[in-house]
């Protein structure tokens, strides 16, 4: 049975079925508040889509096939779902529990259509807060229509918190110099998304940079005076430097006022009682304008003073502060200097991630979430197996150390080049592992995701996609590093690895083509971004080969001239832009374009040193 997340307790009698009829009704217990109708609409729409039945919905009737019953004895997120000769019944004490029961029923109907097996499900989450964190700053800002469809997916898989990461991609007043070349989110967008989330039992939590990661902001004429290291502000744009610079000069009194002005403008747009100030990766702190003070009191002291000041401000506003814990974990005793309400976000993204940071935070008694990742940054296709291992471990740590939540992260380092839909497997892995303590094996979960999300009757799609993420050897990050002179070309023998990768990519492309025939017709369009990614990977291998051939003056290994390769890259990028613009605003697509066009020009030049 393809249910995700898998229920805590399920008893199925597949030899017996209840047959749903177009004459049936959905009856809502009058004890439920009227707002639950928003949840019922999702079920009604699915039944109409998959079965063609336009079922009547009422709040009082003796004739019901689907009965939604309020049971005050159940905990808030707990539900009970039964299918028998009497029909279908979902019990819950709250809108949350009822919605989760409805989402499970929707998945069962999608699989079994009108003949629904007799079953009893008793279900509830292992971790109360199950969140998703989406970077909408680094190049890609999804369209509001796409974000709504993404929120629908979060709700479908019982995720109940959502955060959008903002550095400069919101239309703050007085920031025209910051967002003039961008397509930022607006206050209206946020208000609309907040309401959309409320209807789906999702808490939309505000999250903005307030300390580090002000790269674009602090490079402007208007705000560079607040930069810790002003000597860097006129350096050319760099994807790599963007990850490390710029940090706010917190010894400047204007810096705190600047940050508070952002919070005051952004905070009222949300109904959430939380606010994430981020505060991560403040790499420049103590190295520039604040060095004198840092030498006197220490970098850790400088850091905690500023973070504490922001957190106390939020508490006075009645909000619960959240922040990333990568810096404070170096001196975890400082957690006791923050307001007791503060939530520390302990992150780590390795497949073999240890629990050291989480253990340190737990030992102080501080509130914390454990934060794994979907492993899509720098990738044309996210590393699904890495994300599975990472998320599984972090959810286990959350349970072991009694963390209050999971926040599964989706970052956009080096341009957020992968299609947003490609994060759905990682999203679903996070939904599964944060709901149920039992861990389905990787291959089994891949099959469930293939069948449930992609309507793949073979159950093989995710297995093929997993191969994609491992296929390339010369990667996007390698090209970025070469352009930005972070790394040099490798030894000539690496060509053989690139050639093997090319062959592997071609084999995977053929496997993907075979699997497409097993997808329902309505789902086949979703595979197009994967074909596009495979072609991009293949071009990158050829680029790596071409650069080494020219640098080491080697004979050609691929039947394509560098000029033809440049043309193929530009043609591929045309289709990439079409795909981007279907789901995302223009945002910083031009940043990705700069890398592509620089590479094409380099391939056409007489020498690889000509442009670099």
General description of the model:
- The protein is an alpha/beta fold.
- It folds into 3 domains: 9-123, Chitobiase/beta-hexosaminidase domain 2-like (Chitobiase, domain 2, 2-Layer Sandwich); 129-439, Glycosidases (TIM Barrel, Alpha-Beta Barrel); 461-604, no CATH class.
- The chain has helices spanning 37-51, 95-112, 144-156, 176-179, 187-198, 239-242, 253-266, 291-297, 299-316, 356-364, 384-400, 424-435, 442-454, 461-471, 476-483, 494-516, 528-552, 562-583, 589-604, and strands at 9-19, 25-28, 56-58, 66-70, 79-84, 87-92, 115-123, 129-135, 161-165, 203-205, 274-276, 320-324, 343-347, 367-371, 405-410.
- Strand 14 (367-371), helix 11 and strand 15 form a beta-alpha-beta unit.
- The chain is globular.
- The model has no long low-confidence stretch (mean pLDDT 96).
- It catalyses: Hydrolysis of terminal non-reducing N-acetyl-D-hexosamine residues in N-acetyl-beta-D-hexosaminides.
- Belongs to the glycosyl hydrolase 20 family.
- Its EC number is 3.2.1.52.
Describe the secondary structure blueprint for this structure.
Elements: E1 9-19, E2 25-28, H1 37-51, E3 56-58, E4 66-70, E5 79-84, E6 87-92, H2 95-112, E7 115-123, E8 129-135, H3 144-156, E9 161-165, H4 176-179, H5 187-198, E10 203-205, H6 239-242, H7 253-266, E11 274-276, H8 291-297, H9 299-316, E12 320-324, E13 343-347, H10 356-364, E14 367-371, H11 384-400, E15 405-410, H12 424-435, H13 442-454, H14 461-471, H15 476-483, H16 494-516, H17 528-552, H18 562-583, H19 589-604
Parallel strand pairs: 2-3, 2-4, 4-6, 8-9, 8-15, 9-10, 11-12, 12-13, 13-14, 14-15
Antiparallel strand pairs: 1-7, 5-6, 5-7
Helix pairs in contact: 1-2, 3-5, 8-9, 11-12, 14-16, 16-17, 17-18, 18-19
